[in-house]
Design goal:
- The N and C termini lie far apart (about 50 Å).
- The protein is of the alpha+beta class.
- The longest helix has 14 residues, at about 80-95.
- It is about 20% helix and about 30% strand.
Length: about 240
């Protein structure tokens, strides 16, 4: 029977059971994607990262890795907090002192390094947003109504084709940052919306008027089928447009 080294890491926090949790599986050799999916489904965290050495099969000395991310139901093209969690395992548990490079399934590279102050920094890919295609206007409006019934508070609709994320930019003069963090979507209504799998996530965001606090505040619906709101998501963060 195969055995795997598995970690659960809470990203963006220094306290247990806070932040954004992800599982990290260190692979000595690659396994079938179907096996990865079964592991992620059993772990049941929002994302499970699978990390494989690229050149030297040594998690202490290697600096280049392959990485894949799976939710309990499917593979995703990008997950920032699970990548940071993977780097944390390599830096803090394996004592890897290198600048790390993670190659994604799409061939992109994410570069991560441990700063002198102990924090981990990572570059993010840029996923530009554009105006809605005509075929997405109706489903986008229906989704927006399920999240925020008063459409007068929506300043603009944007869409990121690369990540299939719908972005709802709200009017900061009509809604507060705290209001965004308290949003409770009508998940039953969202499940009724048909977008032909073109919309896989919804970003609700606006600029923060008190610049001393934040540049922007946002919440994220992971997928219309998962019924979960997530306060931190890198694929949504890389799709911001202000």
């Amino acid at each position: 029977m195969s055995t795997f080294e598995v970690y659960t890491v809470d990203a963006f926090t220094d306290k247990p059971f806070y932040g954004n949790p992800a599982a990290v599986v260190l692979l000595k050799s690659d396994i079938e994607d179907s096996f990865k999916q079964k592991i992620a489904s059993e772990i049941k965290l929002s994302e499970t990262a699978f990390v494989l050495c690229k050149n030297v099969n040594d998690f202490v000395s290697e600096n280049e890795f392959y990485i894949r991310w799976f939710t309990p139901s499917n593979e995703v093209p990008l997950c920032g907090h699970a990548t940071l969690a993977s780097a944390a395992v390599l830096f803090y548990r394996k004592k890897n002192k290198n600048k790390l490079s993670f190659e994604t399934m799409g061939g992109d590279e994410l570069h991560v390094e441990l700063e002198n102050d102990g924090y981990i920094s990572m570059n993010f890919p840029h996923n530009p947003t554009d105006n809605l295609d005509k075929s997405l206007v109706d489903p986008a409006i229906e989704i927006a109504k399920a999240i925020l019934p008063d459409l007068n508070k929506v300043l603009e609709f944007k869409f990121s084709p690369g990540t299939k994320k719908l972005l709802l930019r709200l009017d900061e003069t009509k809604i507060t940052s705290d209001d965004i963090l308290r949003i409770e979507p009508n998940c039953e209504e969202m499940l009724k919306v048909k977008s032909n799998d073109c919309i896989r996530g919804v970003i609700v965001t606006h600029k923060d008027l008190i610049k001393e606090r934040y540049d922007f505040v946002s919440s994220y619906l992971i997928q219309p089928t998962t019924l979960e709101f997530n306060l931190v998501s890198t694929s949504r963060g890389s799709s911001k447009s202000f």
